[in-house]
Amino acid sequence: MTTTRIVLVRHGEAQSHVEGVVGGRRGCTGLSELGRRQASALRDRLARTGELGEVHALYASTLPRASETASIIAPAIGGLDVVEREDLREFDIGPEGDGLAWEELEQRFPTPDVWTPFHHHVPGAETWAGFAARVGGALDEIARAHRGETVVVACHGGVVEHSFTAFHGRGMTGWLGGVLIQNCGVTEWQHQERPEMPWVKERTWSLVRHNDHSHVPTS
What we know:
By secondary structure, the chain is α/β, with parallel strands linked by helices. 32% of the residues lie in helices and 18% in strands. Strands 3-2-4-1-5-6 form a six-stranded mixed β-sheet, with helices on both faces. It is globular.
């Protein structure tokens, strides 16, 4: 039986979150002090438990809060080099929204009364559907490149959200039913190819755990 594991780690608390600004390419300045402690706590847990076994690759979004998280946890999973990918970034709010205070963003670009996944809420932003396609394509490519291996991906809440679209067939209707995705929470997907069960198709995935965050300090 061949088992492929995709372990998604949301980044630690971002400094942009502390400052109340939109953290895109321009607005993201990496982790806050608490965020670094959160990532360190996850590193220490993984080193202590060895729960991931052998990890074959470590990917991260190119946004500093995710790549910094990956660098902090890397020593606990074999000291792997961090492979950064643009397509693992959080939802792209576009240049007109990036770096704005959240209050100013809402004032300049009010949330529409009727929301659809195909609407450009802010000029130059991607749509929620486009975000889903980007993330789904990235996760599919990573899974195919690492068939039978364990991969860790340091990413964002929106990427974790759309892993349910990519791996579980969930629609693109909005956030994950109000379920909070904690900083440095772990979500794990697993696919098993069973030669004795050929009706289990290649892209069938099981959710092993979601938002596992008992290790994460909140202050």
